[in-house]
């Protein structure tokens, strides 16, 4: 995840670099060294050093004595708690999505747009499973993922065109839209999937807090979740769970029918 610069005079590149450093952290990290942060962000070590010092002084990172690893600090934790509390649909859907994970034996995930990729903002793993594939903070591509297909299919035309999509992305979106209209969920085509170690099915949800669609997905290893099971069992279960969440939160469906 390289931190990008922007030539627009209104864009604060130093702030972007600092936030990019915080975004480099994943749920399973036991702290990160300067070299690890530099590798994840694409920033020079000298820049990383200045940013970690500043962020530590402000409480967004913590650094204990001679330990060369930086961890997210109390200010980051407080900010994350405030952000989570302000997104009501996550709390409302907690029990619903956990039950879906338990019943299907899949990892249920919430994916949100993160620059030109998607980030898993929340995951629900089946009860009794110690570790399962992906964690919050993990980033996946839009093109080639079922969650990306669901989100771009639910975008309005103006917002989609603002991304300067390629012809391949246009077809990816169009086919995803057809899937959502016909059956209510999307599955990335096998030959386009960004990874051959996980299969997933996704459904968009209108997150008014973000002003754009997000995607709920169910994923698992291909040996657990093959295409037939996604299409006949897991896809319909996920679709129905998202519809129930829409009713619980009073949200309109994410998909806007196009003429």
Automatic annotation (TrEMBL):
Keywords: DNA-binding, Transcription, Transcription regulation. InterPro entries: GAF-like_dom_sf (IPR029016), HTH_MetabolicPath_Reg (IPR050707), Tscrpt_reg_IclR_C (IPR014757), Tscrpt_reg_IclR_N (IPR005471), WH-like_DNA-bd_sf (IPR036388), WH_DNA-bd_sf (IPR036390). Pfam families: HTH_IclR, IclR_C. One of its GO terms (molecular function) is DNA binding. One of its GO terms (biological process) is negative regulation of DNA-templated transcription. Residues 75-251 form the IclR-ED domain. This is IclR family transcriptional regulator. SMART domains: HTH_ICLR. Residues 12-74 form the HTH iclR-type domain. It comes from Litoreibacter roseus.
